[in-house]
Amino acid sequence: MKRGILFGTIVLAAFIGAVLGIMFTVRYLDTFSPAYKSIEQRQNLKFVSLSKDSFSQTSITPNFQTAALEVTPAVVHIRTVYGAGNFSLNPLDHYLNPHARSSGSGVIVSDDGFVVTNNHVIEDASSIEVVMNNNQRFYAKVVGTDPTSDLALLKIKAVNLPFVKYGDSDRVTPGEWVLAIGNPFDLNSTVTAGIVSAKARNIGILRDKNNLQVESFIQTDAAVNPGNSGGALVNLKGELIGINSAIATSTGSYAGYSFAIPVSLVKKIMDDLLEFGQVQRGLLGVQITDVTAQLAEDRNLDQVQGVYVTRVNEGSGAHEVGIQAGDVITRIGAHPVSSVSELQEWVARNRPGNSINVTYRRDGKDKQAKATLKNYQSSVELKKKEVVFELGGAQFENMAYRDLIKLNLDGGALISLLKEGSWKEAGIKESFIITFIDKVPVDNVEDLNRILEMKKGGMLVEGVYKTGGKRIYGVDW
């Protein structure tokens, strides 16, 4: 009898421990560094028991309704504020120096709150607000940005969110029906339909000081206007095939064509930002131009398709395998390339250290080489964005989980040492734990770094002291 009671007690204790463990994990381990390194893997995990029979949804006439209903809840309105900060220290600032405001769109790509948008939607913003189509609002953190592709990854603190599953932009063909979903002119959850007009378009809108911009847009005739930027381009299955980014216009409004970043590139860049905080660009190390009829005639080429190599950088992957100026690259792996934009996209899908097969033509003969891609510093090293632990005269530390539990906190950044600077001038003392900045949650020091990168002027800092007691300070950053 005693053995039975003892056994039952052990089982009950184990059960309670498991429940508490789950609660602890869900509550306290929601940090900026999730256990997964690929958003697509997270999506597949969530969709494993929800796979759809696409055949049953196929009809002779296009069905826009199903995709629109599925995707619209996961397309968000992004509102940004530019200026001295949403919570200025000067009460007259809102009247004397009104803040510039802007808006765009974003796409939730994971159930735990990762949001894709355009870099130009949130660039230089001091505050970013994400509004769901059910009017829920969240203040977002910037996980990372990539101006060379005009993409950015945001994070909001929420769970069990609707999200859009990645599709396959490689299989998209001209003439295929697509939907553009976003918030043009602040009109939430607007759906427009069109067809794919072309692929791998380079329209010359991105600029980079190192000439690393990647433009390989999907062109559509779905109506897109200001405010649609960062929104979803989906197929009729409701799968994400692109992020709407630009329009061709002379007036500033829609004039017939729009352009979306293909999801094949989006996936890679989002995973880079998720894991490293910055993009890991693998470069072949060549300067290139499109092969045209005129170029073929001038250079005595025997074909008018491909990408002409004008220069090979010394020490690059291309240089190491013998690719030379004057060669014409015709394939990357198994994929034909007939333009600079196509080659850039196929190469940009890779990280430094990856090897790719390059097919090129020289003196009328096809040759192949396996080149190892390198970064801009001619290295194969993958670099994670450095976390700075001393900011504005304060030394910061991450909080131990046991301390978070004691104070009933989800996260925070502890000021362990205070010198002269912005924090001390605001009246903050040592042992203060920062939990929010301008309503954005601070989970750890890495969070703090990313949030402060955006801040200029006054900001509202909330937190608690280790001894207890909540405090709010205005910090002039």
Work out the radius of gyration: 26 Å
Output the number of helix runs: 12
Question: How much helix is in the residues?
Answer: 10-25%
Q: Spans of 5+ residues with little confidence (pLDDT < 50)? A: 22-30, 53-58, 86-96
CATH topology of the largest domain: Thrombin, subunit H
What is the β-strand count?
Answer: 26
Structural class per helix/strand content?
A: alpha+beta
Q: Main attributes?
A:
about 475 residues, alpha+beta, Pdz3 Domain, 7-stranded antiparallel β-sheet, 26 strands
Describe the structure.
The structure is a single chain. The protein has three domains: 46-280, Thrombin, subunit H (Beta Barrel); 286-372, PDZ domain (Pdz3 Domain, Roll); 390-476, Roll (Pdz3 Domain). The protein has helices spanning 2-28, 39-47, 64-71, 93-96, 119-122, 263-276, 293-298, 317-320, 340-348, 401-407, 422-425, 445-454; strands at residues 75-82, 100-108, 114-117, 127-131, 137-139, 141-146, 151-155, 177-182, 190-201, 217-220, 232-234, 240-248, 257-262, 286-290, 307-312, 328-332, 335-336, 355-362, 365-372, 390-391, 394-398, 413-418, 432-437, 440-441, 458-465, 470-476. The N and C termini lie far apart (68 Å). It has a seven-stranded antiparallel sheet with strand order 5-4-1-2-3-7-6. The chain is built from twelve helices and 26 strands. The chain is an alpha+beta fold and 477 residues long. The radius of gyration is 26 Å and the shape is globular.
